[in-house]
Amino acid sequence: MKILFKILKFSAAAIFLLLLVFSIYIYASGPTLPKETDKVIDSVENEPLPLIVTGKTGFARSQGLNIWYESISPKQEPKGAVLLMMGISSDALAWPKKFINAFVDSGYQVIIYDNRGTGESDWVKNWDSRHPYTLADMADDGVAVLHAAGLKKAHIIGVSMGGMMAQELAIRHPECVISLASVMSSGYIEDPALQPISSGVAFNLIKAALKYEVPGGDKNMIRLQVASRVILRGQATYPLNVKEIAEQVLYDVKKRKGYNPNVSKQQAAAVMASGSRYEALKKLRIPVLVIHGKQDPFIPIAHGRKCAITIPQADTFWVDNMGHDLPDNLADTLTQRIMANFNRVFIEK
Asked: Is the pTM of the predicted complex or chain greater than 0.90?
C-alpha cells in the first residue's frame, strides 16, 4: 500500500509539473502584440462604445434558423447591392468599417450578416459531427438574407470560408449573382495537388486561444482577437487597427450574444464536408475576381491561382504585403478592384 501511495504521489507531482511547464510554454509563446494594445484596450473600456450597428437590421429565416443581417444604404438611390460573406468563426462585425464604407460611399447598398452559429444569428444546437451542415447550407443562408432584405440579386463578395460560401452561392443560385469576388479562398481546401492550409498557423491560433480565452475576461478576449490578426497577418508588415478590434469585441460582448465556443469546429466540418467545387466553377458565366495576398500564411496563394485558372474569364489580383486579412491600408485598393469587376461583362465564346 505504501508503494502504491508513493507511485500515486509521484504521478501526481509529475502531472502537476507537466501542466506547469505547459502553462509556462503557452504563456510565453504566441505572437507579440502591438505595443500599444493594452493602452488602447484601457482607453476603449473607459469610453462609451460607438454605435457600430447603424443600418437597418432584421432576421432572415433559413432552414429553421434565424439569420441576423444589417443593410447599410447610401444617401442616394443605390447603384446596386453588395452581399458580404465572412469567414470561419467570425460574425458580421468582423468586416472592417473602412471596407464597408468604401462601397456605401460609392453608392452601393451593403448587406452584412452573422453566419449561423455566430453573433445574433441562431447558434446551432444538437449539432452532429456525423451529419454536419455544409457550405451549401451556409450559402443558402446568404440567399435567405438577400431575399429578406428585399433584393433579388447582388454582387457577392466572400473572404476565406466566406469565399467558399460565395462560390457555392454562385453555383447553386446563379440568378441571384451579378458578380463574384472570392478573396483569400479556395475551390477545394483539401486539393491533394496543392499545399494544404498551414497547420502551424492553426496551432498558433489554438495556443493563442489557450493563452487568452481560458483565463477569460473582456481584456483577454480583445487580446485574443488582436493576437489572431497578428498570426494571420504572417510576414506582411501593415499595422493593425487595434482600436477598431477592441471596440468590435466589446460591442459583441456587451451589446450582443458574444462568441460561440463551438462554432469553429462546426464550420471547419462544413468546409471539409463540402468537397471540391472545381467542376461546378468551370460552368460559371459571370464576372469573377479572385484576390489573394502574396503573404497569406494560412491558405496558400496557390489555392487562389488554381481557382483563377478554373473559372472561365476570371480576373485576378495578387496583392503585395497582404496576409490572411483585410488591412485598412489596402481597403481602398481592394474595393476599387472589386468595383471594377462589378462593371465587367462575361463574353460567351
From this structure: yes
